[in-house]
Amino acid sequence: YRQCAIHSGIKVRTVKKKLEHKWEPKSEESTSCINENTKMIVLNYPNNPTGKVLPKKLLDEIVEIAKKHDLFILSDEIYSNYSNDEWKSILSYNYQKSIITQSFSKSHSMTGYRIGYVVSSQDVINKLTRLQALCLTNVSEPIQYTAMKSLNDDVDDNVKTIDERLTRLQEICKEMDLEFVNPDGAMYIFARTKNPINTSELCERLLEEGLAIAPGIGFGDYNEFFRISACQDIKTLNEGMDILKTKIKD
Q: Which domain holds residue 76?
């Protein structure tokens, strides 16, 4: 979202979160970023890459800030199926200036279909429809019908599978003495070593071993962190973490 906004000539103010604060922003930090030109607050929870879910009280405060300043809230809720009980959708506030994005890539493992959807007011949807027609033309009709049919599917097995994999990843990360916060949702662990290393270089070396993890620099000023995904079976995850363990020691 940040890069899309900047490319469109929009000024972006970012609230940087820290591991030491369990990746939680403070509501006053959001307020300090607002001026007379501010139009929107962008949220991404469950968060990619940390898996963080905002406490309900903090989310309540952010919504009140948006209402007070008459701001849109763009809420990326793509990982909501993989969240814990603490997660709360922006939709539940019935705030008219809300925009919620969802994707079948995560909830239904339909990554290759490249399809998602937006929930918002009719006015916003009309504007997005015109923009989407100019930028993307359309998603093919068979894929649209497939996605609509999948809305009736039970994705509990997907959720259970990811949860089991994340549990295993957390066990290994603790054995490796990595620093991280247990994710509340999503399908990732965002970790760092106790002695900071350049994770961009680490990720390059890991590719030579057939292992792909994401360097933290891809998510902002987090070069000492790396993101591990739980998108492979447990046997493959175990093998991959063995490679990671060896390369970190090197």
A: 2-150
